[in-house]
Design a protein that fits this description.
single chain; alpha/beta; six-stranded mixed sheet; P-loop_NTPase; AAA+_ATPase; nucleotide-binding; ATP-binding; ATP-binding cassette domain-containing protein
């Protein structure tokens, strides 16, 4: 996989957070099959990188490319197409509470252009099965535990067969055992599908248990932490 084109590439990118630049000179490449953590203290720009990846925040300088879209020149009407090639998982799940699990997923597929009902049903079944939630498709989100809601959120992220899943503190609201289950699920998706995963987390213990590449944010920069940085060979 080393020769494959990056799905995310930043070169000397300045990352904005609101009106301010929070990270200068970001160099980061994510290739198919990568599992990358972005770690750092609160306020060091981790989530701002996520917002740049999904084109919610414009770059303050430098270059960025996500799934073939140039972040410096992307047009407003192209942003929804970029986001269809990404799966995004949030800390607070962001499910629609007024409809069932199945209808949450159906809503996303309709919004992204799926018209064939049979194909839609098959895709919903497939992603719920992949996250172990097929038997709960009729449930309302309020009837599910936090871990189950996050599994549904991951199923939603898988719907359009994304090249990369962006996960912003996906275990932040979960107890350790449930968080561990979510990590096992994400690593399985990464391994079996070759889906790249970029995960913001403050939980270094999880990152050590499920190893991946690591970008460390601090002092207005975010740089890759190699094994040698940890005194390991």
């Amino acid at each position: 996989m080393g020769n494959s084109e990056p799905v995310i590439s930043f070169e000397k990118a300045d990352i904005a957070g609101g009106d301010n630049t929070v990270i200068y000179g970001l160099d980061m490449q994510v290739r198919p099959g990568d599992f990358m953590y972005i770690v750092g203290k609160v306020g060091t720009g981790k989530t701002s990188i996520i917002r740049a990846i999904i084109a919610e925040n414009r770059l303050a300088g430098g270059h960025g490319n996500v799934c073939g879209y140039d972040l410096g020149s992307i047009k407003e009407n192209e942003i929804p197409y970029l986001r269809r090639r990404l799966g995004v998982v949030f800390q607070d799940f962001q499910l629609l509470m007024d409809r069932s699990v199945e209808d949450n997923l159906r809503f996303v597929l309709k919004a992204t252009g799926w018209k064939d009902e049979r194909e839609t049903d098959r895709r919903i079944d497939a992603v719920l099965d992949a996250v172990g939630m097929k038997s709960k498709s009729h449930k309302m989100p309020s009837q599910l535990s936090g871990g189950e809601q996050q599994r549904v959120a991951i199923a939603r992220a898988l719907l359009n067969r994304p090249e990369v899943i962006i996960a912003d503190e996906p275990t932040g609201n979960l107890d350790p055992e449930t968080a561990d289950g979510i990590m096992r699920l994400l690593t399985r998706i990464n391994r079996e599908n070759g889906t790249a995963i970029v995960m913001v987390t403050h939980n270094l213990a999880l990152a050590e248990k499920y190893p991946g590449r690591m970008m460390v944010c601090g002092n207005e920069e975010c740089i890759e932490n190699t094994p040698a940085d940890n005194g390991q060979e």
